[in-house]
Amino acid sequence: MMAAQKLKHLIDQLPKVRGTLTADIPIARLTWFRVGGNAEILFEPADQEDLQAFLQALPQEIDVTVLGGASNLIIRDGGIAGVTIKLGRPFSKIDIDRSTVIAGAAAMDITVSRKARDCGVGDLEFLSGIPGSIGGAVRMNAGAYEAEIKDVLLTATAIDRRGQLQTVNASDLGFTYRHSEAPEDWIFISATLQGIQEKSEAIAARMDEIALARESSQPLRERTGGSTFKNPKGQKAWQLIDSAGCRGMQRGGAQVSNTHCNFLINTGSATAADLEGLGEEVRRRVKNETGIQLEWEIKRIGVLPIVGGTS
After folding, report:
1. Amino acid 309: pLDDT
2. pLDDT by residue (tens digit) across 235-250?
3. Closest residue by Cα to residue 122 from 216, 218, 210
4. Active-site residue list
5. Fewest CB atoms within 10 Å of the CB: 61, 74, 106, 140?
6. Can you give the pTM of this predicted structure?
7. DSSP label at 199?
8. In this predicted model, what pLDDT tens digit does every residue of 197-252 receive, in sequence order?
9. Beta strands 94-97 and 165-169: pairing type?
10. How far apart are CA 134 and CA 127, in angstroms?
11. Strand pairing of 20-26 and 73-75?
12. Helix axes 109-118, 200-217, angle to 10 degrees
């Protein structure tokens, strides 16, 4: 009863929207790992103006969390408090003018690379090797196959926590390896990317090479979240994990992939706690074996579940 009252009270504080607001909704289905608790409130805005108006009217004390493609993400079993914002189809438009690509933040990386290929725009084929969406790629400077989003980004547009529009150049975002200095409260809504005009056949050939490389080296048909840990400078995370004897290691329904040991997989019954706990055990063993502390690349968000209780 108390939980229901809390949800009702939160909903009563929220501004009216043209999109959808849903209370206490399971969101594991939205993630690649398929784990995690409920979102207290899920907001799917109708368009940019709907999102801006909502944030402008939303009380500042209410927490806001943004879900992108939810590929490189573990949502903890206690769920997400406050408002979780999920950008959908209205934010997935892709426009191409010669060699310039304007992609909505919800557009999947692989979809952008394929449309660019079809329009004869090269230099974006590396996106086909990155699971997730353009907004997340900008947020974390995603990269693969010797290229990163910072190499092709011209400008990015975001909405801040107060509902104000922010448009910045790539140089303003302080990109480093798998990191940007973008303010935490920014919600990216689009990015302008610069490619080169090239024959579609040549672009397609490179994308085929990437697809074959991924197929042979990554557990693509498993419930996974991409690379778990960042590569330490001058090192490969998977090699460190392998040398520490972690390949195939399990905790509950979570397992270190035998195919690529910088991938965690949900074998079917994993909880978020299984995955995060296994990752922490990998970090501990690598540190003991090599002296190197691995950094998480996968983001972990949400509330840790309450274990036990008081009588």
Report:
1. 47
2. 999 999 999 999 999 9
3. 210
4. 178, 227, 297
5. 61
6. 0.89
7. -
8. 999 999 999 999 999 999 888 888 889 988 999 999 999 999 999 999 999 999 99
9. unpaired
10. 9
11. unpaired
12. 150
